[in-house]
Amino acid sequence: ASYFLMNYVFYLVTFWSFLYLVQQRHMTALASGWLASLPFVAAGAASAVGGRLADYFRARWGDRVGMRVLPLVALPLSALFLYLTVTTTSPYWAVMALCLAFACCEVTEGPFWGATMRLAPSDTMAATAVLNTGGNLGGVVATPIIAALSAHNGWTAVFATGAAMSLAAAVLWIWIDAGGKAR
C-alpha cells in the first residue's frame, strides 16, 4: 500500500511535470522539456544514494529501524517539496522544488525493495512482483485523478493530492517491520 501511494507521486512527476510547466508556469514547450527532465536526473542520483543509505542504516540500526529511516524522513520531505512546487512564485524555484520532491520520493526505492526481499526471503520474485504491481497500480490510479484535478481544480489540487499520498506512504512505514514480520 505504501509503494502504491509513493508511486502515485512518481507518476505525477514523471508524466505531468511538462504539462504543469507549460500550463501553470507558462513556459515554452522547449524550456518545459528541458526543465522537466531535471527531476529525472535528481531522482536517478537519489535512487542510487538511497540504496547505499538504506544499507548503511540497516547495518547500523537493524532491519526494523534501519529500513524505516529513509521513508519516514524522505516521504514527508517529498510532500513538503511538492507543496513548495506550487506555492513558490518563481518557475525556476518550482522546478528546483520538483527536483527535490522527486529525489526524496526516489531515495526510498532501496528500503521498499530491500524490506520486501527481507520479508519474503524464499519468495523474493513473487514478493517483489506484488510490490511492483502495486506501484504500477499507483500510476493507473494517478492518471485519471491528475487529469481531472488539473482540468477542473488546477495544479494546486494536483500537487496537494501528491503531497497527501506521500505523507500517507510515510505513515504506513510505521507498520512495516523488515526484521522478519509483516504486520
As residue ranges, the low-confidence spans are none
Q: Give the integer mean of the pLDDT values.
A: 94
Distance between the termini: 12 Å
Total helical segments = 6
Please summarize the sheet with the most strands: 2 strands, antiparallel
**What percent of the residues sit in helical stretches (DSSP H or I)?**
over 70%
Query: Which strands sit side by side, in order, in the main sheet?
Result: 1-2
Number of strands: 2
H/E element order: HHHHHHEE
Structural class category: mainly alpha
- Quote the beta fraction: under 5%
**Mind telling me the C-alpha Rg?**
16 Å
The backbone outline, from C-alpha atoms, is: elongated
Written account of the structure:
The protein is mainly α and 183 residues long. 85% of the residues lie in helices and 2% in strands. The protein has helices spanning 2-23, 29-87, 91-106, 109-119, 124-152, 155-172; strands spanning 176-177, 181-182. Helix 1 runs antiparallel to helix 6 (155-172) and helix 2 crosses helix 4 (109-119). The longest helix is centred in the first third of the chain and has 59 residues, at 29-87. The protein is elongated, with a radius of gyration of 16 Å. The two termini are 12 Å apart. The mean pLDDT is 94.
